[in-house]
Amino acid sequence: MKYISRNSKVALIVLFALISATLSAQDSSWVRKYQFGIYNQYDLRNSSENAVSINRAVNDGFRRGIKPLMGPKLGNVTYGVFNFATTFMSIVWSHEFGHSLRAAQVGGEFRIHNASIPIPYTTMHLPEDITLSNEALAVTGGFEVNYLTVRALQREFIAQNGIYNEDLGLSFAHRIMYPLYTSLIVPIDPNDPEVWKNTPGDPANCALLTFENYSNNQVFVGADSTVNPDLVKFYQQSAILGTFFNLLDPQFYREVGGSFGNASKTRRPIFLLGDYHTGWTYGTLFNVSPLGYELYMNNYIHVEGNMFAMYLKYGNPYKNLGLGLGWQDIIKESPVRLSAFVDIWDQDIYGSGISGELSADYRFMDKFGIHLNLGYKTRGYVLGKQTNEGPNLGIGLIYYATY
After folding, report:
1. Contact 220, 226 (CB under 8 A)
2. Taking the domains of the chain in order of start, what are their residue ranges?
3. Angle CA(374)–CA(144)–CA(283) in degrees, nearest 5?
4. pLDDT digits (tens, 9 = 90+) for 46-83
């Protein structure tokens, strides 16, 4: 099977991505971390984590090394264009590499034919005998990376009680990619049978493959082969929730503020009860998966400077219930930081399961450290991880920079 990634309305993405183009970080005593790692088992952090760090590194390098050589006006304009280009390309390429990792996981191949700007020309080739579940997994892999990036940046934002406007803008741009597709770039009429015969764009493909699997290929019904009303409802729910579920997240408004606000300003998370030392806040997350759309309620509880995280997950149309628990920085005494995370789920197709993971940073020099990740999961769908049972291992190099 063959999918072609193309976008005749890419100018609309460019317009919205430009929101984060003029951002820069202020000097801060916070540690800005570039983490470059390798994970096994087709883990999507291979794409998400490295893309965030590359985007940080090249923008910091330009801002500190090149921009001061220009005058204030030329420097600001040039940096704005540079930041826009790097932010946009990091979103596009991390999305495409998400498809690549998932395609490889299910025995397929993702080919990059040319790196044309602004959108690369790529095709995905999957085995002829592939199951609909695995086919949907490969197609949803791109948006998975986008939402994995949003989650990672939000966790960092709340864990360290603040983040750079530049990173908030990057999170905002990743978050709105799916809503832009469904509302502006490739809007569709889900009642039109031709849409599902020639599905335009990733969101429609994601919905179609999931629903085909869920309904035993009952995409069209009746003597006149009208579109199954349940498919229409499922797609409309996905499009609406992908757009408006963000509005329930108080941290989303920090992302918007970071995108439009003063370039020299950093921002702190909104705590609804208490504060960073002892308090509670939350965030929401939307994701598309081979089980359908997912809705996450992410709770962040701070107790005397310790952060505990808990999420509740609901998915549709397949049963997809989940619970996640995390303890950020169980150990945070220099030079070691250790965190732990557990995911539990009950899902159609995959059944019930559990995933546990330890994440450790060891700072062996003032500017350098090592990141180690050790975990194991049973069969099931967890955002960013392989669906099969097996270990989750990762190793990386960290560069610490203070601005």
Report:
1. yes
2. 2-402
3. 85
4. 999 999 999 999 988 898 889 899 988 898 889 888 88
